[in-house]
Amino acid sequence: MKPLALHVYVITESVPKFKRTHEDVASAALAGGADLIQFRDKRMADEEFEIVATRLLQMCRAKNVPLIVNDRLEIAARIGADGVHVGQEDIVPNPTHIANLRTMWAVSGFDPIVGVSARNYQEAFALADSGADYLGVGPIFTTGSKSDASEPIGVSELHRICAAVNIPIVAIGGITSSNLRRIIESGAAGAAVISAVTHQYDMKSATEVLQHWWKSDSAALPKTWMKGPPE
Fold first, then answer.
1. Measured distance CA(78)–CA(91) in Å, rounded
2. Which residue in 20, 40, 72, 119 is the catalytic one?
3. If 0-12 CB within 10 Å is exposed, 13-18 middle and 19+ buried, where does residue 36 land?
């Protein structure tokens, strides 16, 4: 098992109304101390996706932060990304799938980080011995970042999963600086966020605030990021 820093796990998105690109989000999150960046874009064509992924990888390598690519396995392997995140439906029917993912990277000398999504206790428990490096579990709270998100499972169910599963759990779904402490107390190894960074006035400071909760229980939080999104 790789020693992964997963505390502040930022998933990029392009936000046209704020004139923000994936690169803008990654740059600010990296400057703010994000532990890991995931590049996720369901609509982008493969050719453009590979170009953007390569840029993000260069940015992440400069900060010694892993880049995870969502779903597009061949592209991730081709550019030498640090890993991939896939849906649990890609793993459960085929228990050799994670081994196959690792083989894709073997020719370049990488052993990829592999994350798998789980929506509830049953899925998380079934994936505990899948060979994944971490599970992304959620949504924990109601979220507007994914139109196809299932019903939120809540913090109590997250705590139950963290207690039962022996690999790191990254919580996702509706997580903000105001509820992050509840995620930490549940035993999760990290929190994956989108709008808690991408829709904030100052994305760098928003990332710093999230990181703050993992490093300190008592210091006052900075307030400069809490202006709301840009006009």
1. 21
2. 40
3. buried
Note the pLDDT tens digit of each residue in 137-194.
Answer: 999 998 765 656 679 999 999 999 999 999 999 999 999 999 999 999 999 999 999 9
Spans of the chain, pLDDT less than 70: 1-3, 89-96, 108, 144-149, 217-231
* Other beta carbons less than 10 A from residue 164's beta carbon: 12
Please enumerate in sequence order all residues whose Cβ is within 8 A of that of 187, keeping only pairs 6 or more positions apart, or say none: 159, 162, 163, 169
Distance of CA 127 to the CA centre of its chain: 18
- Residue 101 makes CB contacts below 8 A (sequence gap 6+) with 73, 84, 86, 112, 114
Grouping H, G, I as helix, E, B as strand and the rest as coil, residue 192 is strand
Catalytic residue selected from 27, 117, 145, 186: 117
Is 119 annotated as catalytic?
no
Q: Note if 146 is an active site residue.
A: yes
Give the chain's domains with CATH numbers. Answer: 8-215 (3.20.20.70)
**CB under 8 Å to 17, separation ≥6 — which residues?**
none
Torsion angle, alpha carbons of 210, 53, 57, 2, to 10: 70
Residue with tokens 């999150």, as numbered in its chain: 29
